[in-house]
Amino acid sequence: MDYKQDLITTIHDLGCDLTRLDDRLTELSQSLPTAVLVPSLYEELERPALRNIRDHLARCRFVNTVVISLYADTLEQYRHAVAFFQSLPQPTYVLWENGPRITHILASLQERGLDLMNHKGKGRAVWLGLGIASLEAAAIALHDADIVTYDQSYPLKLLFPLLEREFGIAFSKAYYTRLSKHPRQMHGRVTRLFVMPLITSLMELFGSRNYLRYLNAYRYPLSGEFALSSDLALNTRIPANWGLEVGLLAEVYRNVAMKRIAQVDLGIFEHKHQVLGTGSNQGLQKMCRDILRSILRTLTETEQVVITRDHICALRVKFRREAQNLTRQYFVDARFNGLDYDRHKEEATLEQFERVILEAGEQYLEDPTGAQIPDWTRALAVMSDLREQLQDATVADMEDAREVGTLPVVYPDAPPVAV
To answer: 1-7, long-range: CB within 8 Å, 24+ apart, which pairs?
Structure first.
């Protein structure tokens, strides 16, 4: 069996008793409340995965609060979302992150010198959701809205290490095996074919730096499922680009002692797949670009590594060799397990990822700063009741959504929202 440990604690599933964990976590959550945060586009409501997630969350006795951070284009979409989640027995906040009330609050924050209006996408949704969740929860689990294999063991496994105080864990990260059923094949291309060979190549270039060893300890560094204490949530800058997951790990590296970090086995896992894209501004190639820039920036910030163009060129050469070696190993593993594996397609994919390295490296050298949303402690220094304002706005939005015929509230200077 696999007992391997590294810089961070690895919590294996060695046949754990989920009923025992459920009972214990339910008991702990009475004094240490928990929340689950799900950032979502409205489109996810039209897919079966989110319905399954909702139905399993309803059975989670250990979850005290649910926060849905929703991007919806119209009031009608938002109304549908509120109705969609009303069956949850837990207190549930459907935060309309681009709605007029939330936009008005962010505009007020902008007037006071803290501009979040230009941040879009998952990063802002996560930041806003953490604000509301941290008001009521001691520990917050976050996961995406497109997980096909979801069940209540996911938030259970993520939250348990944080609430069992003897463990001393402040951050837990999911790892799993990405496999599809029809056909049976490996997924997780960015992790397998980009991040893993990239980290190995960087270690060969710059030596066994602590930050690189830390990244290398994660079995699935790009998983979108994690849990963190509310204190950590308030003191973490949230990346605002497609490098969110690896950028968040950099924040955890800065803020948390290694002994307080864990990764948890969620088993077989499947969710929606991103397209590869035709250039570095699209799909998985864009994700690779943002990931590399984030890693290079953190290397300089935390390890005092000076990055040059020669390093970027050498990194590309080393990356190709490491990635090609991995495709051979994946081929053997896949064939042994009867999985479909197109080795030519895999190598063509890694060649596209390889081309991103030079472009991302040049972009980093020209502008090494990153796109990060300031942490919540800074926002609260600007507007001390900001979380309460967001919560009140969400409650008001939900009340309006339940009243048929109610028109959207439009504040002065707030961008109009379609009806």
So the answer is: 6/216, 6/217, 7/213, 7/214, 7/217, 7/258
